[in-house]
Design goal:
about 200 residues; mainly alpha; three-stranded antiparallel sheet
Length: about 200
């Protein structure tokens, strides 16, 4: 998977992702797309916005093993949000790297906050290492920092305010832990828990 800045146009969309995963229990992805569009399931004002949102959610769900897709539907809301966040990471290499390189270290070292400086250093390092990230405009980088922070707040990984982001080590349900391990997603587990 290559780096990109497509997340600047996307939200976390937990409720919509969970509903889409629920529909996938009885329908093919193409049938779900049809339902989403015909019923305006995501309650968007335009078909183009609806189709764009579905495309993003589809990519996130397809990045998850079927076991995790099913678990998202039946799990408690906090675990469901973590699974949706794992889908975001699995579909967005830059977000995964941020979580694995920065958030995991924060948890491991017991550092209480995720600062703007942490985000700036992460993006600067990535820009120095990768030409695709180097090509992302400053405006898009600023937006990505906002979007990724919002995702983390919505998934319960950060608390407080945008200006004072408190790191919140999530409770990982044992079923989720085992499902991630069974599906060779140990790095995603480590990104959330700070484990080595």
């Amino acid at each position: 998977m290559e780096y990109n800045a497509s997340a600047t146009k996307h939200l976390f969309w937990f409720v919509e992702t969970r509903e889409t995963a629920r529909l996938l229990g009885n329908h093919s992805m193409d049938e779900v797309r049809q339902i989403v569009i015909e019923e305006n399931l995501y309650q968007q004002k335009s078909d183009s916005r609806l189709i764009n949102e579905f495309g993003c959610i589809r990519k996130r769900l397809e990045a998850l093993p079927e076991e995790l897709q099913r678990m998202m539907v039946t799990a408690d809301i906090n675990t469901g949000k973590l699974i949706a966040f794992v889908g975001c990471m699995a579909a967005d290499k830059l977000l995964f790297d941020l979580m694995y390189d920065v958030y995991r270290r924060k948890i491991y070292l017991g550092e209480p906050t995720l600062t703007d400086a942490d985000l700036n250093i992460f993006f600067k390092d990535k820009q120095d290492q990768n030409e695709k990230v180097a090509a992302i405009t400053d405006t898009s980088v600023k937006k990505l920092k906002q979007v990724y922070s919002k995702y983390m707040f919505e998934a319960g990984l950060l608390t407080g305010k945008i200006s004072d982001k408190q790191v919140n080590k999530p409770y990982i349900d044992p079923d989720l832990r085992f499902a991630l391990q069974r599906n060779a997603m140990d790095k995603y587990l480590a990104a959330l828990t700070g484990e080595k």
